[in-house]
Records
---
Amino acid sequence: MLVAENIRKKVGALPHKPGIYLMRDRFGTVIYVGKARDLRKRVSHYFQPSRRLGWDLKFKALIEAIHDFDFHVVRSEPEALLLESKLIKEFHPRYNVSFRDDKRFLMVKVNLNDPIPRFTLTRLKQDEGARYFGPFPSSSALRSTLALVRRQYHLRGCRPLTPTDRDYKHCLYAHLKYCTAPCIANVTRDQYLDQVKAACDFLDGQCQEMQSQLGEEMKKAAAAQEYERAADLRDLLADLKNTTKKVNRFERMPYSLPMALDSEKDLIELGEMLGLAGPPQRIEGFDISNISGTFAVASLVSFRNGRPDRANYRRFKIKSVTGQDDFASIAEVVRRRYTRVLNEAKVVGSGASAQDQGLPATIQNPASSIQHPASIPQSHSAPEGIRKRGVPSLPDLILIDGGKGQLGAARAELEQLGLDHIPTIGLAKEFEEIYRPGQAEPLRLSHESGALKLLQRVRDESHRFANTYNAKLRLRKISESVLDEFPNIGERRKAALLKKFGSVQRLRLATVEKIAEVSGFGGKAAAELKTFLEARSVSG
């Protein structure tokens, strides 16, 4: 393997420091993000020919696709881990597996506007006026440290937003004297708030006194041959140092879709590789996004002349599929997409025949089922009159993110709609294999092929668009979950609130009188909810 001179020089100039590196292909797309304790040693391993015999197919494909790389120096290995996770979620590199889900590192959250503030663990920030500490690379060290903080500053660990006498009777924290029991007015709110603020200072890194104290206790225990206690204190001290170590907070890095070097050339090459009648001027790509079967959504992206046609992007919530079933999800989305296109074409072009429109002989009205044509026209472009009204033409090529199974599911739906004359392929991620109907073996193009790069851009954009929609729905659900902390809300009353106001943001703006109109809420409950939401709103 020949290493480009520019890469060789950059590797030689890398520092022997911890950091992250981003591998890019010839279009500037980030294809891999990695972390290193020593940047020069780690990155140089990628370009050593002597190691080539030990490479697997995936790693070999990565090496062949690398055209350039960037790096960023950090202060420590935990900091590199945090930045690596953030960048993988930002760029979704196709050669990364870890950190590509929506799970994030833990943070500590406390809302000083609560009646009796408490520290909780969370993975996502919300705009509600709370203070956040973290994220922290080690969840076990964080939990151990948080337990120490609660004991040291006598803070509550119970769940209720406003604990009462009834909660105190069964509270282990209060009876063990870990908590000053503000729920029974042992201390005033101002006194308890001082305890919370002191704990906040501790989590901000002002913990030298505590570390010295634990170090002294550890030495005393060891001198007294209390080795188990000394070992526990040693572990607690290590957890404390790991948790309170200062790390940078990295700003969000904007996503940009890389453009082709020569779109026209890539389209011509793609048409020849797939045996099409000509270059596919209009390509539509589909992808499914779900995490463990929840918030299942799909995306449709459109490329015209090798460039994104964002006006014709579409997103879908999966309606008919239960659980995680990508085949059924792809089938549903393809059916919904092209049924709608045909229906809209029929409505807009009702004055012309189906043959005049260049479409299959379809339904008599939008509500009826699509009838299969006796013969399929060769042309599948919508008429000019339809395009002017915003109804897209049928594509020259459909790209499905997946292998044989996903492609088969899509083709079955297209046949039902009488659209199986539209060329359709699947692009599998692992080895970038192209699956075609009726072909037993996948097509493998060179990783330097412009045709493959064009398909990858369509696939990656559909993946990004689907993941963005999935994340949006999850954040909306998280914002709604703030209602779960309101005492005795129940699913029925929560659903009634969201049905009337649409979102928590609109509920915050509602008056007490409007909230009281919701079924299950009287004047007192409405006033308490309003106070609760104001405490959760952004300060100032």
Note: The mean pLDDT is 77.
---
Amino acid sequence: MILVKRALMLFLVILVSLCSAFPIQRSYAATITRINVVEAETYASATYLIAGKLYSITFESDKADSTKIEFPWLDYSTDNGATWSSISISTTVNNKVSYGAFRLPIDPQLVSILLRYGVTLNPVIGSKSTPERILGPYKVMQPGDPSDFTATPNDDGTVTLRWDDRSNMESHYRIIRSGPDGDKTFDVPGTMDQIGPFSFTDKKTNTSKSTIYVYSLTPIIDQYHLPENLIPATVWATVKTKVPIQLSDIYKEVPLVIPDKSKINIDIPLILINPKYLEKFNVKPGDLDKTAVSGVKLNKKMIALKEGESETLIHSVTPSNAANLKVVWSSDNSQVAEVDSTGKVTGKSSGIAKISVKTEVGNFIDTCMVTVVANDESPPQELQVIQLSDLGGHPASDEILKAVAVGIVTGYPDGTFKPDGSVTRAEFASMLMRGVKPADEGMQLVFKDKDKIGNWAVKAVQQAVKLGIITGYADGTFRPNANITHAEMISMVIRASGLPMGDEQKTGFADDADIPKWSKPAVSKAEETGIIIVGGLPDGIFAPKALTTRAEATSAIVRMLTIMAK
């Protein structure tokens, strides 16, 4: 026995010596080791980005081959990282290299950005990690179609053209005037890198008599290579100058024999006779007395669909009382997504397609990028294009967008999120379980008011009860339709996180004395971990009895999940 003890002691001494000489290396979480943005067609590194063009983000990591890549996201910032907006990305993985395809929206306000790419790396053994990398800044070239093109007659017989330039790529604009005297060409230089309103006055009109002219406007992009589907459209507008029109002028414009004037009914408006040069524009002279089309807009710039899913885009022609409101729909890749005459878009196969709507008169165009994902992709990797109209400048917008992207929360049908709206206890339980994703089905509920829990929330409440996240009230009720308070919400979040809670201890909140004892350990842990940031709350108070907003609930869940993944 003594020999055994001595041998054991000798072994321990040797082990300590070895550990001192060769310390055990810390096991680091996997990271992104290299990342690059390349053109999808040529694989050349991108020094600038063209909106609407397909690019790929390629990255390599030091992850193990068995580690899964989950929740890829791509954000862009126009204010040097102060705020971020999400953009859809399709990711495929080849061993340790990941390829993410994306397109930037065609938006004249988007001319310089930072990109932020991140993923969750989930190893078979060990903790998850959420590496991310920021790239840029990148100059963004916008190939947008000109909009709001109008031709206004002046009292002196000249015509002033106005339009909204939505491209910073054109070397100049080309204007072609079609009229009784043929076609005349004008160039407007100095528009590259400029976005905004422009005007040009045609002083070479016929100022001796009233004339009908059609002006076409084309941005000339000759210093950048654009795929055919991104070449800006030619738009046009029609005008009748203000000089009194002559009867002979009308008949000069058509290959007809002038009839005996004595047999002409002067009550018939001869201007309805269509000059030949107007026919190619589908314009009748009589339309000039009606409101002209100046543009068209779609309700969404990007959508995401699964194969077989459909969504109807809504267009609006401006002005709404224009003479001709007809439009034509098209897809640049009908094998990925097709569109019918009503704007209904249907996903056909994985990929990205551009849906266009064009006015019959004026050629005004607006577009929507559609990303289609396969049905067999798991929900966490499902692409979701986030367009929520009421998040601008909201401090929780980043967390909300990420929560929407992974299916924790959704917006409303009108395109809003209502960040300041309230949350019921049943709604929060559902949000929390969608974030945690427990494998257990839960347990039977014994709450006295269990019948008041909506069918949509029953499973989530059952799971939360099984995990010890929900215990209910002393009277045996759950109160599913009551709005959840700050204290209740944070307590559920910390229980769901599994983070250890100590004894009740003083927090840094100005109203620390008002925080109930039963929730103090959870509030303290939330403050310690950054799930709640004291400085981000008005007057530094926690307000334990105040009702939780949708933004507060979402932010707490996302921050909790981020901590769990580390």
Note: The chain has a mean pLDDT of 80.
---
Amino acid sequence: MGETFDLWKLIAGLGIFLIGMSMLEFAIKALSGKAFRRMIRLYTNGRLRSIGSGTLVTAILQSSSAVSLMVLAFVGAGVMSMQNAIGVIMGSNIGTTLTVWIVAIVGFKLKIETFALPFIGIGGIGFIFCDSSDKPKSYQLCRLLIGFGFLFLGLDYMKGSVENIGQNFDLSMVPDYGLWLYLVVGTLLTAIMQASAASIAVVLTALHSGLITFDIGVAMVIGANVGTTITVILGALGGIPAKKRVAFSHLVFNVLTGVVAFLSIKGLVWFIAHFIDIQTNDVMGLALFHTVFNIMGVILFFPFVGLLTKLLYYLFPDYKAILTVYINNTPMEVIEAAASALRKEIIHLLHEGQLYGLRLMNVDRQLVFAESLPLEKSSRKRLSLERLYENIKLLHAEIFAYYSKLQGQKLEEAEAKELERIIFASRNIMNSIKNFKGIRYDMDEFNGSESVFLNDQYDTFRKRLLKLYQEMKGIQNLENTEEQYHRLLKAFVKIEEADKMCINETLKAVAEGRIQELQISSMLLVNRLFTQACRLQIFSLKDLLLTQEQISNFDRALDMKEIIEEEKGKES
């Protein structure tokens, strides 16, 4: 068998085929991704339109998984209804059959070298000489050509690895375990490769070479359709209920369609035989079967989309975590109580934002907060940095919604100004958190840099943040507002001093050649965003803790250098 079957050639062919599919998919998405996303978002109003859009976009993108993941994103963002999402997924199953038709018609009818090698050659040369930033479209077009060439070059390798063994292979030697086994094999093959088109190409190759019968190929193709759901399921794991509904609908549709098709194999094969002679053109027959049973699934499911939607909402109901601590149970009729609750909630927002900063900078949270904060307690498992940021945004939204409702109450002028001042503090807090979010990857780069200067600055930023948060915690524990006023002003002075020191050290490092030119702008930008984030948190605490007179004095002090210098003298 070693003389007739080349296992490594088969594996190499499969690898080249998968690389081709990946390059093709990414190139098409880069060239027209926005247009396709816009089409899915806008032209899916109604079941028929959503099925049509799903079919068209998948046929062009050559990836049902990519379309399904887009649907996950749109449903999660609330811009697509569940019924329309199911329609797009149903359509994507039809659209993905185009890949099989291309492989069946071109890959097994024409000589590969006549078009695959020129595509790879022209695309490869262009890929080397095109710059991805200067000529992005030409660059992606070259990737598309290479991907298309690799797709069929890989198929040719797979064909060549088994064609000799197929001529002398006796199917009667294979034990008859039943078609269900091949159904499972097709499912597992697709789940592993994460691409139904690739697994079906393997099936078509085996069928063309006579290694499997038409019935076995049919069972494996049905399994491939079921296996393709794994990508969407993985994309929805740990996601919001809306994403879980999309993933489950994809699984239900593909599994039930597969069950119906598997139970109807004899009837469907009989139907296919009326259009294509399976004995002489089994590859085309299998491509037609793949299309027919997917269309059949859409027809069968179409009347039950509404029922499936209700079932999905029942299985995965929306839940709304209570992120607020103080305002959720405070009635708005008593303005004094409502204003006090709002102030406390914004201080809670400040603490959650500080936790985000500590975790982003890899500073031990217990150096500032000995106990877990409310957002941590509300989650069963440790929140990721991304999820913590999203929860903080939701908390801020609830705070602002409560403030907006308070505006509907009969407020005195002093009460309205107080509420306006403390809600302004919440905006400063959110802006500071956005600044920290903006420097996250730069900080990671500084930490992992080969530059000793950047490593040192990374540690300095962490110390600056820790000292500020410890100072702010101490200020909040003070009962005397006058003392809070002076301590806040001193904290602000320290922020300004640290900012100047960072700039001076950067200039010194530049003069001494300890930092590269490209790193200078990154360093200065990070310092500016970091410093501004620290200032904003001081400003927020000022508006939350001080009296109106002290706030006015604080604001005037920032405009008067002599007062700042006076405070610096007191500190020394």
Note: The CA atoms of residues 169 and 211 lie 7 Å apart.
---
Amino acid sequence: MNHAVSPVPAALYLRMSTEHQKFSLENQTASLRLYAEKNNFNVVKSYVDAGKTGVILKHREGLAKLLRDVVQGEQPYQAILVYDVSRWGRFQDTDESAYYEFLCKRSGYPIHYSAETFPNDATMPSAIMKALKRVMAGEYSRELGVRVHAGQERTARQGFRQGGAPGYGLRRLLVSADGKPKQLLAGGERKSIASDRVILVPGPAEEIRCVREIYRMFLTKRMTFVDITKELNHRGIKYLGGSEWPHDGRAVSTILTHPKYAGFNVYGRSTQRLYTPSVKTPRAEWTIVPAAFDALVDSATFAEAQRICEAYTRNKSNTGLLAALRAILAKEGKITIDLIERTAGAPSAGAYRARFGTLSHAYQLIGYDGFWKGGWIEQLRGIRALRDSLMKEIVALSRDSISIERRGASFRTRLRMHNGRLVCVIASRTFRGYKGCVRWLIQSPAAESRHVTLVARLNLDNSAFKDFFVVPPLGTYNRIVLRESDPRLEGFRLSGLRRFANAVQRMSARGAPPFPIYLHPNSR
């Protein structure tokens, strides 16, 4: 008697960028389901990355979830179906996509490709074909990047803007292919018709007046970038978005040095190929088109500003820059970014970063052993890395009930529970207190004072976490010192990271008062 073989439960992984219609999610799904039907698979789950680049893993939540699930094990499927080898990604390092496939196979979930002409059976021909396909996928991205760059350069030579914010005093105008104006584009808006183009036009009258006043102060009064910035803020003139002008003078520097303010269209001042770090290019390699836009300042005024800027740069040799730092140190007894920016006639902090790479390097060159003494910066970076790893571990253990909320470079990341509740994470470093006793420091921004907090205390050399506590909101105080057996932590200890979500839920349900800032006088 013949018995029908039960279908093997399988999961689908689909990824589509914007590269070609043949890779649409509908086409991939149809191909994979037909493959499943012919090969006795039953699709029980799908992981999807729609509109995601294949060059980097960042932001590919579907693939990240798939890898997290297979590593945890005990999934409702026994195999994974993928359209073709390139769906893992078009990585420049071909080992990256191979690693993701290996991770699935090692966890007990073999990979099947529906659109490849060879079976994925671990034989030598299969291994060779997959390696070739991965190289071809990476080369496709490289060639596509070259073609896109060439197309953008060609369009820039015609006088059209190639992306990026317009800058203070300017706005983006959408025009048709034959140059007819269509509409002003607001921040974040993009053209919807491929043949349309973008040019720069003068912005509001008050911004134009401000740009010309900046040139006047620079050329006539010989004011520095920082001094001009201070004057603008003193007058109450607002920068983009109604904010103050950045105190380091960078915004003023851009206005005084960018050729777009003299009506030039400039393309290629920096390059960033395939998500690698941005690199500044020599001026000789820029694409510069004169009289492409209406100028905010005339060419003679702009040229004079460039002459002064170049002379200023030449005069500010390494010796001169370091001498300015020594003068600040001699007068103030210390050096901080705020002191650098507030010192009249001193170069900006950005000038030191541009010349020496980092401010700390400049400090070291003058023998100033400030806050980084004893490898403090390296230790701080290590603590940040430990905190990031801790948050990722909690998310990996949460089975999708917790996520990491990233708020931008100026803010710390936080954890968000499935019910929307936010949880702050603080890596509490050790230090030596009175008579060498060990203490732990909690430093919390005021913006996080209302949220339940995970306090992770570090060991004696701040190289690993010692213990964990889920505590009530810290209140308005942002600096708290803890002892080894601190009574304020009693009842808040977390026995394991798997219990994190339950501990947060219990803490939230209690409606507990803020964490006590000071020890009771009788506490030891």
Note: Residues 520-524 have pLDDT under 50 and may be disordered.
